[in-house]
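Example 9 (inverse folding). The structure is encoded as follows.
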């Protein structure tokens, strides 16, 4: 059965790596009902004869777009998948699907459809406005159909339009629905739609992959005229088959807490310096996180429940969950030792992904030299040369050596609404907003103590959170609704009301640089545990040693590995 005929379960950066084509922002237009059609025009193909590629640009994928500068897509198809004839205008072609045409072992009917989600910091993804073969060549040569949708985001709002969450994922879902609406005239398999993204893009493709057909998105989809039914009135789906997420900055609802437990509790400078209210705040956030994670009821591959317990030193640095985290860190280091030979040069990341900036480079002549470097300030790694394996003894040594907190306390929902993610959940026209009830609860419980510090301001109090939570967006939904919509665990964990009320992608590949200071180790660990506990069998998860916030891979390059993974999880 095609996925677009199924009903909802249980009810209502890398520029080159993503194949991004040249784009510019246009001008937003007011809503105009029925001004656009969902029908794809098979008589309007352009053709790149040198590379045998058919493509179309600028197809609006909803009938009532809020942002015509963003809500359109481009599609790129290997020539073998279409039979085409030239039109009288001399520039366009009329084409129909050739089910016998093959590329890379795929046919015109079985080819996977890959969709990049390049939205760093939950920014918008500008749509393509010109054709560039080199940016999509590797995917097309592998037999993929490449669809590039424009998506609204944190940075695309205008003086008359708010594009804050959940509009980015809403647009992505609308584009998926458009493809299914037109499956009769488009090549490729809509059963094999695969999303891929890094950082905020990895987060949004994770949300989309977990929230297929979620009722939370229905009012937003209807507002913009997304395809809810096919031409015969049968329900359409926005669920996808696969998700490739590099360093997904997600689970924002709890990210302030996990950041302080995982990293902040071992820092003592900046906002964590003694004598500041934010130092006390850091400790309180860290203490709140074990209560949250224990409620999730996560289990490892052996069925053992993972929980944190009290410890003599530090904040809850004991228990089965702690042991699991240390094992993940140990496995990452041992994979690194197995994958590489020495002498080995490590180059630190010197700027954001795709910036081309590098940090310092250091060459270690032997494994023993590298282990000695790791243990410079304290011994937290032991090494067995006979087996070429290492053992990590604890979290504190690892964090102080390799994963230093580089964000202030309140790393995601900032106490002054100054963090990037406050803009992701802006309320109204560009006004950053609080969005995390778990953070609000910590502030509420302790603000009398915080008020005794000279650097405290009443503007940071719980009343500011309550005020933001009470406001509603243009669709009439409050912050709780919007934050749930952008929380993948809302759909994956029985601790939340959205559990098993969506269609979850069946294939996942998650990679993260274990050294990144952008989010806690626990973000991706909890995601993969929740997926497996949910019953998703195909979860390919790895943390990559000696890499930070990047399209991290143990070996090889991200594009080649992604294409190989797609081949392994789709039909040919």
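The amino acid assigned to each position is listed next.
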């Amino acid at each position: 059965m095609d996925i677009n005929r199924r009903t909802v379960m249980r009810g209502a950066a890398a520029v080159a790596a993503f194949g991004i084509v040249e784009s510019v922002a246009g001008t937003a237009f007011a809503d105009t009902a029925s001004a656009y059609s969902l029908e794809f025009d098979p008589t309007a193909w352009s053709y790149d004869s040198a590379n045998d590629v058919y493509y179309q640009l600028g197809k609006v994928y909803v009938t009532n777009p809020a942002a015509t500068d963003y809500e359109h897509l481009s599609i790129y198809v290997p020539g073998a998948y279409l039979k085409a004839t030239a039109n009288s205008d001399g520039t366009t072609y009329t084409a129909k699907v050739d089910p016998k045409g093959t590329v890379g072992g795929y046919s015109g009917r079985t080819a996977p459809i890959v969709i990049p989600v390049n939205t760093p910091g939950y920014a918008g993804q500008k749509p393509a406005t010109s054709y560039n073969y080199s940016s999509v060549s590797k995917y097309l040569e592998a037999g993929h159909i490449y669809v590039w949708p424009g998506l609204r985001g944190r940075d695309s709002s205008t003086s008359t339009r708010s594009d804050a969450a959940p509009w980015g994922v809403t647009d992505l879902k609308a584009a998926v629905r458009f493809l299914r609406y037109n499956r009769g005239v488009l090549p490729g398999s809509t059963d094999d739609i695969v999303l891929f993204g890094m950082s905020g893009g990895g987060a949004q493709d994770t949300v989309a992959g977990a929230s297929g057909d979620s009722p939370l998105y229905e009012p937003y989809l209807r507002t913009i005229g997304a395809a809810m039914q096919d031409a015969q009135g049968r329900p359409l789906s926005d669920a996808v088959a696969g998700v490739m997420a590099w360093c997904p900055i997600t689970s924002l609802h709890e990210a302030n807490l996990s950041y302080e437990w995982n990293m902040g509790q071992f820092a003592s400078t900046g906002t964590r310096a003694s004598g500041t209210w934010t130092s006390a705040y850091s400790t309180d956030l860290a203490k709140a996180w074990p209560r949250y994670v224990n409620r999730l009821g996560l289990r490892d591959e052996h069925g053992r429940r993972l929980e944190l317990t009290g410890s003599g030193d530090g904040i809850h640095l004991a228990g089965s969950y702690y042991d699991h985290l240390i094992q993940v860190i140990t496995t990452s280091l041992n994979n690194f030792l197995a994958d590489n030979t020495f002498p080995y040069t490590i180059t630190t990341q010197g700027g954001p992904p795709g910036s081309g900036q590098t940090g310092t480079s250091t060459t270690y002549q032997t494994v023993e030299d590298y282990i000695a470097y790791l243990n410079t300030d304290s011994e937290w790694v032991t090494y067995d040369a006979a087996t070429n394996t290492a053992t990590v003894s604890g979290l504190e040594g690892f964090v102080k050596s390799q994963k230093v907190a580089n964000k202030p306390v309140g790393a995601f929902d900032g106490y002054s609404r100054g963090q990037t993610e406050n803009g992701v959940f802006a309320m109204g026209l560009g006004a950053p907003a609080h969005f995390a009830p778990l953070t609000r609860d910590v502030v509420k419980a302790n603000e009398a103590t915080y008020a005794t510090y000279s650097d405290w301001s009443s503007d940071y109090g719980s009343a500011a959170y309550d005020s933001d939570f009470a406001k509603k967006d243009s669709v009439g939904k409050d912050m709780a609704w919007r934050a749930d919509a952008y929380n993948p665990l809302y759909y994956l964990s029985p601790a939340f009301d959205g559990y098993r009320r969506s269609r979850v992608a069946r294939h996942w590949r998650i990679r993260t640089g274990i050294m990144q200071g952008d989010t806690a180790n626990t973000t991706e660990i909890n995601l993969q545990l929740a997926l497996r506990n949910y019953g998703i069998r195909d979860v390919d998860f790895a943390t990559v040693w000696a890499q930070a916030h990047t399209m991290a891979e143990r070996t090889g390059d991200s594009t080649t590995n992604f294409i190989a993974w797609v081949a392994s999880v789709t039909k040919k």
